[in-house]
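Subject: superoxide dismutase

B.,
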Amino acid sequence: MIAQGIWAHDLGTRVVFPRTAPRFAPTIYILYARSHLTQVFSHSLSALSFLVLTQVQQHTSMALRSLVARKSLGLGFQSKAKILAVGSTAHSRGFQTFSLPDLPYDYGALEPAISGEIMQLHHQKHHQTYVTNYNKALEQLHDAIAKGDAAAVVKLQSAIKFNGGGHVNHSIFWKNLTPVGVRGGEPPHGSLGWAIDTNFGSMEALVQKINAEGAALQGSGWVWLALDKELKKLVVETTANQDPLVTKGPTLVPLLGIDVWEHAYYLQYKNVRPDYLKNIWKVINWKYASEVYEKESP
Ligand SMILES: [Fe+2]
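Prediction pasted inline below.
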């Protein structure tokens, strides 16, 4: 009936199922759609898109749930199925939940740039809270749509954006870091290195720009190095709170995201955010950024 576009991240979303149907079964669906699901899942959460559709025919939803279940392995998705009895008919309905991804290194592995205490709290407490609240909001959304409660659906959008954005952003952030002994801080070579020189003049100029914009960001948020696929150039962007990069443009691909929330540095750097930004470059994983760039560059 009505497609509720809740939130979309990254390169644009392609809906792979009908937005409308001639007859409506009493059921609802939350779903994720993007053209290269396998690529996304095997690569990162950097290209994650969400749509919420309401009242799609039951036979269509069954096929979609089957598709998503097959595609969701390995990305922190967990399928949660509920069996509801409606009259004498049992209807199966399901929605996707998310789980906290493991870090690819130990909590203390980024010291002295980022302390183990910060990493542990950041991952186990902050990121976990986004995941927990995101799943809670999705479940409430699922129920609100089932009840046809339009006001409740709209009310939940901010919680989905904030907590879903927190989950997406932090999932990228962990991959943007690597210990010094595991290529941490090694500048990019190849095509990304050339692109940085072309777009910013030099790596030093890029670092200076990101540090300046990150330090100037008021309150909490993120500073990004992104590929603009439409303009075919690299750009530096900032987003407030937990807004994902897609909120600045559907053609932006995040190569590097730096968390400038106080929880990312305060225990070690107190209120001196510029020192945190200065030191984080020692553990930046340019290999990961290069891989994303080479895969996504036109
Ligand atoms: Fe954070």
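The chain has a mean pLDDT of 78.

T.
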